[in-house]
Amino acid sequence: MRFNLPYPLSLNNAFANVPGRGRVKTKAYRDWSTEAGWRINAAKRIKKPLISELSLHLFVTKKYRGDLDNTLKPVLDALEKNGIIKNDRQFKRITVEAADVENMICLVSALNSSDVEGVNSPANDD
After folding, report:
1. CA separation (Å) from 57 to 34, 43, 67, 71?
2. Is the dihedral of CA 31, 67, 111, 54 positive or negative?
3. Among 19, 44, 92, 111, which is least packed by CB within 10 angstroms?
């Protein structure tokens, strides 16, 4: 499955320390998560979360100035929150690559191609 996601949010900007509450999601993170959710749900081709072992390949725009690994956790959380996966522990292979893309492209595939119909076929190739 392919998801075109908004411009990457660094994990460094995702949480803030709030006295008496601890670590809380920032407005920037909540806004990014909402937009990512809209995009994921528009491209979703499954009715229930995947339960197989998965691979994730994340293409991040070369314009992004932060550490590539800081983009990963918000993407994993968005996939889980929007019903693509049950838990991010399902990913057994993850790659993050700087690429000539507009914002971010997230590819999710089953490691065993017989796991789920439609998972390894492209979606939203526009």
Report:
1. 21, 16, 16, 12
2. negative
3. 19
- pLDDT value for 113: 53
Q: Are 101 and 60 in contact (CB under 8 A)?
A: yes
Domains in the chain and their CATH numbers?
2-110 (3.30.1330.70)
**DSSP 8-state symbol, 91:** E
Mean pLDDT taken over the chain = 87
Q: State which amino acid sits at residue 119.
A: V
User: pTM here?
Assistant: 0.83
pLDDT in tens, 53-112: 899 999 999 999 889 999 999 999 999 999 999 999 999 999 999 999 999 999 999 887
Pairing between strand 104-110 and 54-61?
antiparallel
For 26-57, b where at least 16 C-beta lie within 10 A, e where not — what string?
Answer: eeebeebbeebeebbeebeeeeeebebebbbb
